[in-house]
Amino acid sequence: MVLITALLIDLDGTMYHGKSPIPGAKAFINFLEEHKIPFLFVTNNATRSHAEAQHFLAKYHDIVVDDNHFYSSADALISRLQVSDSQESAFVIGKSALKHSIEELGYRLENTNEQAVDVVIVSLDQEVSYQELSFACLAIQNGGSFYLTNPDIQFPSENGFVPGAGAIAQVIADVTEQSPIVCGKPEPTIIEGAIDKLGVPSSDVIVLGDNLLTDIQAGLNADVYSVLIETGVHHQSDIEMLGVTPDAIVKNHQEFIERFLIEE
Known about the structure:
This protein is α/β, with parallel strands linked by helices. The protein folds into 2 domains: 6-44 and 185-261, HAD superfamily/HAD-like (Rossmann fold, 3-Layer(aba) Sandwich), CATH 3.40.50.1000; 86-182, HAD superfamily/HAD-like (Rossmann fold), CATH 3.40.50.1000. It is built from 10 helices and 15 strands. The chain has helices at 25-34, 50-61, 73-83, 96-104, 130-141, 165-176, 188-198, 212-221, 239-242, 253-261, and strands at 6-9, 16-17, 20-21, 39-43, 70-72, 89-93, 108-109, 119-122, 145-148, 154-157, 160-163, 181-182, 205-209, 225-229, 248-250. The protein has a 6-stranded parallel beta sheet, with helices on both faces. Strands 7-6-8-9-12 form a 5-stranded parallel beta sheet, sandwiched between helices. Strands 2-3 form a two-stranded antiparallel sheet. Helix 2 (50-61) links the parallel strand 4 and strand 5 (70-72).
């Protein structure tokens, strides 16, 4: 008998390492689909649309799911903006998918007059320029609200770690002496938004991820049962040093299935 549990699953480090597969990840998703267990991939990556994330999974990892199985820090940002005060213009540091989402929300993109910006939004953009950083700083100093999709300072590349969205935002925060409103993990906002999308009680949800500081901390902050999977960044040996204690630890996807999805 399969226990009915909804899952919020991290992507990089939990389902894959970039373009390299993690053994057992595809079979894990096949199991969830076969047994109709509701799940969402919850990611801090705001550079891809749902369709692009779906394409990446299918192309590089042969994991085929509908594009409604994704919830990103960009989605959490959109939810925050929908309930905020009425505003008209936004300056966005980020990829085209994020800018399109902001426009669909009704914002006018402004990049010529920093005094006319209501909201400054920062996400990962590997082509960000000094001029854009300066514009964002001036817009915030002129009263613009400051939002950050996700606080990741770094992320892995093929040659080592490179700056993430959090590093870009840190430059702006240091200059303006303003802290951003953070929407991605480890803030509970992204977990709460994903649970709302699933439409299930939080008590029925398990967060599964490889990063204690983002995935697990976000789950704990949202008061959701959180399981560390030792396929990526962190392992049991890191818990004491980092001070983040998951509710449970598994070595791999098969152990998770046996412990949490199948009743003996």
